[in-house]
Amino acid sequence: MISYIIWDVNPEIFTIPQFLGFGPFPVRWYGLLFAAGFLIGQQIMIHIFKKEKKPLEDIDALTLYMVISTVVGARVGHFLFYEPEVLFKNPLEVILPPYAGLASHGAVVGIVLGLFLYSRARKATGQTFLWVADRMVILVALAGSFIRMGNLMNSEIVGRPTDVAWGFIFMKNTEFLQIPRHPAQLYESISCFVLFFILLALWNKFKENTPRGLLVGIFFVWVFTLRFLYEFLKENQEAFEANYALNMGQILSIPVVILGLYFIIQSRNHTIQKVG
Q1: Number of domains into which the chain is organized
Q2: Position 9 in a domain
Q3: Is residue 273 over pLDDT 50?
Q4: pTM score, whole prediction
Q5: For residue 59, what are the domain limits?
Q6: Average pLDDT across the chain, whole number
Q7: Per-residue pLDDT for 275 more than 50?
C-alpha cells in the first residue's frame, strides 16, 4: 500500500500584532528563507574575499547590489514573461508588495546587470565581472535552494499528479485537487544545494586561479538543464502555457544553457591575470 506525504504546513510562522496603527505583519517561512539565503551568502563571500585578499569594505555594496537586482529582476521578469499586460498597464506593481510573482530567469538578468554595475568601478582590485560572477553563483545556488524550500512551505509551484511513494498532497493549495503530486520545489531545492557544494569545492580547489567563467558556466548548465527537465513534472504557471509544446520556463532555459556551455568552453583557454 502506497503511503503519501500529507503537506499541511502553515506558510506563516507567526504574526506581529498591530502597533501604532501599523500592521499586523505576518512573518512567513518564504521571507525568512529568502533573507537567510542573502545573510548566509554574505558570510561566505566575506570568507572568499579574505582568502583572495579583496577589500572587505566592498561586501556591503555587493550585497546591496545583489538584493536590489535580484528582487527587481525577478519581479520584472515575472510580469514580462508571464503577465506582460500588468507590467504595461500598472508598472508600479513591480515594486509594490506582496511580491507574489518572482521569475528565476528575470532574477538571472537582474543579477548579471547588478554585477556589471558593481564590477565596473572595481577592476583595479581584480574584481572583474567574471571574477565576481564566478564567486557569486556559489551564493546564488545556496539562495536558490532556500527560495525553492520557501515555495514548498507556501505549497506553491506544485508538481503534476503522481503515484510515487514520495508524492505530496498539498492541503493548503486550493488551486489544484488535493491528490498526490511531485514535490517539484523539493527537487529543485536539493539540486541547488548539491550545486552549491560542487561550486564551493571547485572554488576551494582553485581559489584565485579559478578559470574565469567556469563556475558561471557550470551554474547555468546545471540549473537550467534541470529546470527544463523539471518543468515536465510541474503544473504550468499560467494558463496560456497549455497551448505551447514547451512552457515559458523551458523556452527561456534553452538560451541560458547554451550561454553556460559557451562560458565553460571559453574558461578552458582563459588566462588568469593576477593583481599584484
Answers
A1: 1
A2: no
A3: no
A4: 0.86
A5: 25-236+247-267
A6: 88
A7: no
